[in-house]
Amino acid sequence: MSREPRREQLLNAADRVIQREGPGASMNAIAAEAGITKPILYRHFGDRNGLIKALTDRHTGGLLAAVRAALAEPLERRDRVEHVLDTYLAGIEARPQVYRLLTHPEPGDPSGAGNALAPALRRIAEEITRAVQSQVDLGADRDLLAEAWGRGITGMVLAAGDWWLETKPCSRTRMVQALADLLWGRLAAAADLPTAVLPTAPAEPAAEPPAAG
Amino acid sequence: MSREPRREQLLNAADRVIQREGPGASMNAIAAEAGITKPILYRHFGDRNGLIKALTDRHTGGLLAAVRAALAEPLERRDRVEHVLDTYLAGIEARPQVYRLLTHPEPGDPSGAGNALAPALRRIAEEITRAVQSQVDLGADRDLLAEAWGRGITGMVLAAGDWWLETKPCSRTRMVQALADLLWGRLAAAADLPTAVLPTAPAEPAAEPPAAG
DNA sequence: ACCGGGGTGTTACCCCAGGTAACATCGTCG
DNA sequence: CGACGATGTTACCTGGGGTAACACCCCGGT
Q: Which chain A residues are within 8 Å of B113, Cβ to Cβ?
């Protein structure tokens, strides 16, 4: 049996174990699921990051292609945006554990640390950026706005999507509406509430640390 | 010396080490920085999560109070939103490592795993939700919209802020404008670009995994 | 028939990080 | 003085990532 098919089998096993235990499953567990021992995994994938990367690469394609297709749909802009949102939410709804892996991949690699967006999401953000750049007339600021918005929208959908997936407070279509409304400036357009006084807590002082900078 | 002051000293040491090495600094390193050994840390904080929690609690107050104050500012809504955005960006700009700790706290705890928003950010999201609920007239959907938007806006600012902090593509005020514009529906309002044909890649097929939930 | 290479797999080990047990010390309060 | 509550220590356990060394199996070339 040549390398490739074996690799696929191992990836399938890893998929199963992560489906069951979530990301952060141990290499031992994955090896056991595949009916083998660790060194073989390391032979095929180098290290844990290699395995995770192979795994995410496999799954990223689907989500990314779906989002890309949605972004290219010949619809009214609002409908297109809703279509993209719905595509993403449908994706994370269909296979929560898999998309948890894509979206929250257990850092591990301290190199590019501090990124809110996992690689797969960064690619989605780039896709959005490109779409905005090529479809929307934003004047001189187009590059900056498109990049900032790409990241921002992705982060927005990520956080809101996570919450929705956890608490399922409403149907998917309603959630899509809520997010599209936000992007459509409904927050800006809505009227002030008459009782605009704020009954929140009185803002504790909060201690500051010594060394800063 | 009674418990509390010692605790503060230890937290200060932990602060210093995290400032230097980022989150994920080892307990050994922190203990060494404090001039002591591990068991003492564990006596004071139980486990690593306890330490991290104590640390984040200490810092969360400042950011949270600042955001809360900004949300309560008696300004025109657009100005208030900009003020909140600026407050957050100024915070992460002033002490990157500290806010990296608040916003990307090395999961570790697999209990409530899968959350895009760290505890500190979740509290900010709640603050936004409350502000929206009490200030904006959104009709019957107000609760759902306020919650979804709170999470969404927080995630948006998190992702966009991370990117901005890393690449510093523009001034803070410009970034604030970009995000406020997004929230104000500029994406929706802008005209279509004439050349609305998409020259993106032809969407590779993408393999699907065997087991799916 | 033989041997070598590239695949399969194994056991046993290293390192390091989180976490704990057991023990020694110092100062204060009754 | 003795007890208590804090300080601190060394030495250890567990478990996960990662590796070294070794063994098998098959197939193709000489």
A: 22, 24, 100, 104
